[in-house]
Structure formats: structure tokens, C-alpha cells
Amino acid sequence: MSITTFTEEETRAIANRRTLRRFLFFPVQVLAMAAIAYPWPVDHWAVQAFWVLVTSYLMFCWTSCFHETAHQTLFLSHRVSIGLGRLLGWLMLVPYTAYRETHIRHHAYLNKPTDWELWPYSDPNASLAFRRVFVWLDLLLGAFTAPVVYARIFFHPDSPLKPDQKQAVRWEYVGMACFWSAVLGVVGYYGAWSTFLLVYALPYYLAGVYQNGRKLTEHLGMISYDPLLGTRTVVGDNLGTRLCTFLNFDIFVHGPHHRHPRVSHDQLEEITREYVAAAENESLPVYRTYSAAFRDMAPWLVRNPGVGVNVGADPPGGAGKEVDNFAADVTAEVVGA
């Protein structure tokens, strides 16, 4: 498995930030799940629906935490990031190594045909008809399509994975199978299927909708291969946007994160302001609210669900630099290389 290599400055930034409070979603989620299983404060469908929605959003925060573990920017110890990442991967049916290697190439080859994470939207061989069907499956059934998208880098005949990485993915699938066999065995033993469906399965399904809605909002319809121009970035000052950004480790500040995948998440807003100021007459796709970014993306769900070449970009020239880890500055080290 590849390990992210940080400079001394990047390491100090990770060490000096205060990340622990962002994990508040874990204990709150446990309490919300308990309120579903043991109806509180009253046994009423509206109250239950409220707790299901709370649980589903906090499960969505799992995906942002998983994302940080893949970058290995969450803790100073990469072993802790890998351990937590593998546990979250089991829960989400996505092997940690497959996710990390897919995501490395997503940063390096944004919107290009070799962007495994944005398949089929980045794939010029995927027909418009197929993409129009798949995008709705992806949005409404994200809990099921995400494991397929991330499995492709392992099962595809042109997989870029090295033998040791493939072996790691195999063992992660074995661990996943053992984990869920144990969980479902306990649920079956106690005949708690209805509780499991309400406490876990339904919120998890909704979390998949939120997650893939986020992915599409930040990427669908973007033509540029440049990290700042090829993604939608959200930096807001209203309470709702700031709270959601906080709980999701600043993943909504997407363009600067794409350009600097090794930068600590708490630095991304300041970097965004610097890039916006430096852009002068060049407008960057930065939005004050997530709803504004969604409105910009929404027509592409019907018109042409694609990115890069599939929405009019010139084909990327040459084979490009082979990348197998996160760069400090993707624009300087990969796009412009």
C-alpha cells in the first residue's frame, strides 16, 4: 500500500490543528441511533423520522472522514488513518486500498478518461444514453453504485494496482465479508431485522444519496482539467453551510483541496481566499452556499451527465505523468508537468 509522504511544513500543520471536535458526529450518531431503537422522547412516526434523518446525515459524515483517512491527513500516524479507513470501508462496502488508489488518480487526472472515480462521466467510451441512466442510479442508489465504482480499479483488466495493493484489497474484502457475516448473524439470531432496517439500513441508504449528491454537485458538467477550474468549491458564511463544512472536514472547499491534496483541511478556506484574490478577472467556480453550487450542476443531470471530454474538453495530450501518490501541488507537478 502507498503511504502519503509529507513535508515538514505539512506535518506541522496536521499536528497543530484541532480535529478531535470534528468527531462529534460519532457520539451524536450513536445517540440518534439509540433514539430510533428505543423511541425517545416519544414513540411517534414524526420523531422517528427526525432521528432517521439526523442519523443519515451523520452517516454521510463517515464518507468525509473516510476521505481524510485515504489522504492520511487525519492523524500524524498513517497506521491510525489506515485502521480507521479500513473499518469505515467495511461499513460502506468499499475496500480502503481500492478507494485510496482510485482517489489518488482522481486528484492527478481530474476529469480525464483516466479519472477512475468519475467513471462513467469521464469515460469517452460511455455513451450519453448510458450516462443519462447511470447518473440517476448513482444519485438515488449511491449506497450500491459507490462499491461498484471503487471496485473497478481492482477488477478491471487494465488495473494500475500493483500486486501488493491487489493483495491488500483481497484481504479487505475478506475482512468485510467476515464483519458483515458477524453483524447479520447477530441480527438474525435476535430476530432484529426491522430494527436493523430502521436504525442502520434506511439511514445508510439516505447517506448514499447525500454523498453522491455531493460528488455530482462538485464535479458534474465541469470541463477543465485544472483543479481550481474543474471543480465547484463552496465557502459560505451562513450557519448551516459552516456547520456542514465543519462536520465534513472542509471537503466542500473542493478546488483548493484538489490542487493541494496533502494540505490540512483547516487551511483550505484561507487558500481559497488567496486564489480568488489572485484570480482577478478570471472567475473561479466558488459559491457562497451549497444550494447555489447544486443549481449550477442540476441541468447537467439531464442535459449531459459528464465531465472533461464528454462535455466538450479537448482530449488530454499524451500519456501524461504516471502518478501513484498524492502530490503537493497537482497543477505544478502533474497538470503542468
TrEMBL record:
Record bears the keyword Cell inner membrane: no
Q: Which residues form the Fatty acid desaturase domain?
A: 44-286
Any transmembrane segments, and where?
23-40, 46-66, 133-153, 173-206
Q: Which UniProt keywords apply?
A: Membrane, Transmembrane, Transmembrane helix
Q: State the Gene Ontology BP annotations.
A: lipid metabolic process
Q: Which Pfam families match?
A: FA_desaturase (PF00487)
**Keyword Iron-sulfur attached:** no
For this protein, the record's InterPro entries field holds: FA_desaturase_dom
Please report the name of this protein according to its UniProt entry: Fatty acid desaturase
| Provenance organism | Posidoniimonas polymericola
